[in-house]
Amino acid sequence: MKLKEIKHLLFKKLWRFPLAIASITSVFLFAACFSLGTDIVSSSYNFNSFFPIFNTQIVSNQTAEENTRFPPPPPRPTLPRFAYLVSGSKGELNKLWRTTRALYHPWNYYVLHLDLESPLAERMELASRVENDPVFAAVGNVYVIPKANMVTYSGPTMVSNTLHACAILLKRFKDWDWFIYLSASDYPIVTQDGSL
């Protein structure tokens, strides 16, 4: 064999040894971290007794932490807040109303919209129903879009209408977690309390 071939074979096999050593060392360190557990705290105390510089820094940090006790943060609510856009078209006033009543939860927010194809009388009736409903009026979490938008359900107007509803929700109610778009015919099988 030529010298170049011997060097090439030697370099080809040499990478295996450092890889094996590094792997064994990593496994050993990984196992040592889990087996030590709380012994690390006591060993750090022994380490600091040999080096008083580190010991004074730890003592000063402990006293500073003891002096500034912060109250625990308030617990977050377990239920998420949903923001709904419930939209309908001509002749779907009763479907939209029924879907909204079935979905309603005082914790959530609702934007209702009847598109431009629905007659003005239906849009006024929807606004009147929301205004005269005692629960909706007391909680104040249902909003009817007063100006109807043209919505074609396969075009950019659908996206525009959804973004318009999101803008209303972000302006009026800022503390919701999820946005859900529904049409008037999306009648739920179970309520929010039933599904949670």
TrEMBL record:
Cellular component, GO, one term: membrane
InterPro entries xref list: GLCAT14A/B/C (IPR044610), Glyco_trans_14 (IPR003406)
Top-level taxonomic group: Eukaryota
TM spans (from-to): none
Location(s) in or outside the cell: Membrane
Coiled coil feature spans: none
Membrane topology summary: Single-pass type II membrane protein
UniProt keyword list: Glycoprotein, Glycosyltransferase, Membrane, Transferase
Entry annotated with the keyword Membrane: yes
Keyword Chloroplast: no
Gene Ontology MF terms in the entry: glucuronosyltransferase activity
PANTHER family listed in its UniProt record: GLYCOSYLTRANSFERASE, OS01G0201100 PROTEIN
Name of the protein: Uncharacterized protein
Species annotation: Deinandra increscens subsp. villosa
